[in-house]
Design a protein that fits this description.
With 461 residues, the protein is an all-alpha fold. The protein is built from 17 helices and two strands. It has one domain. The chain has a two-stranded antiparallel sheet. Helix 3 packs parallel to helix 16, helix 7 packs parallel to helix 8 and helix 10 packs antiparallel against helix 12.
Amino acid sequence: MLTGSSSTKQRRRFVNPVSLPVLTFTGLIIIGTTLLMLPVAADPPLTTIDALFTATSAACVTGLVVVDTGSRLSLFGQLVVLLLIECGGLGIITFSTVFILLLGGRFSLASRSVIQDTFTHGPDTRLTSLVRHVVMFTLILETVGAALLFIRFSTMYPPGKALYYSIFHAISAFCNAGFSLHAESFMNFKNDPLVNLTLCGLIITGGLGFLVLVELKRLYLRSRNPRQPRRLSVHSKLVLSLSFLLLTVGTVGFMLFEWHVSLAELSLPAKFMTSFFQSVTMRTAGFNTLDFSKMAGLTLILTISLMFVGAASGSTGGGIKANTLGVLFALSRSRLRGEETVSIFRRTLSPAVVGRAIAVFAVSIVVIHLATLSLMAAELGFSPHSANSGRFLELLFEVVSAFGTVGLSVVATPTLSSAGKLIIVAVMFTGRLGPLSIALGLFSRERRARFRYAEENVMIG
């Protein structure tokens, strides 16, 4: 018979930094699936596979859909999806931010001392204060975004519907979910600067991560007091610089590849705005103002590359993370120069940090490779390539979109078989929590003990 002390220890071994996010998101998906299977959630009611797919896509803030959210789901079903998106977005921000602060910068891929210098001088390192600030930032940004969207939607819909549409899409954009109540996403708004810029602002802020937003706020407050030092941590510098680089590459690349294709009939300002919007959304959000099924093959390859990278650590976005890409760039540069150490912004990275970046990259490649093979086997069988021309790129696009929790598709999602849908469900879940769990699993016993110690102090405090 187990004593109370031994049973408590067993629960602590079971619920640890590695299993806690997995268990939480699994429970969220199960609850969402159950609610979406109710007759009141959709007309006609969703099958188990479609309900599971929709719940996983919403909880993992992906945006891939097998049924149209705006027409097939009832108001109850849409509210379930919205709640899953908000819980999933807030959950992943909170989990990853807590782990960055308490476990030594796992996803910042920067030195622990830099993070401590920035984040341990205030109350934000306490879990209760941290969660409160996450919720505060989220509500403020989503409210501002909804207000701006309401300006446009109020000219199209009755006030109640306009308000609902504004709130739904603001939450979906900030959480980088990509769910839309419009059947064609935002293709009818490609010439609307207000809608485009509002969605881009929400997606970018959600993709930067909470820690970067906090630092930017502090930097602004310090700028008003010349006596206070003004600097950013390596994490924030890396996120901001790489986000700017990826947005620039995506915008220029999209405009170049689609100039005479999907952008042919647009004016020069509209071409730039549309290209910028796709560059923002293709990394993690999943909204679109153009039809991706009609785009050039080069554009799809560019999109796959950006979806694979994803957003920043500690954000609502997926992918291998821009931070990981930054470390890999720094590693390549140091090796080409013949240097033994790897540094970013004059900060030397430990071999463990570099090793973790390589591990995340390698595991992600393996997952995508195996998932693509499985999906091809489920959808195409062993038919010759000539009989399925173009399907490989479509299925690869689908897998990377699911792994990067992006939500873009080239009309492959609704046509998937039940086996194919289950494969994509597994990829979405792995893409959302896999790199996080893998990285946390690499922690030493000492760091896990330090997490438990910090967690106990937070709970007591």
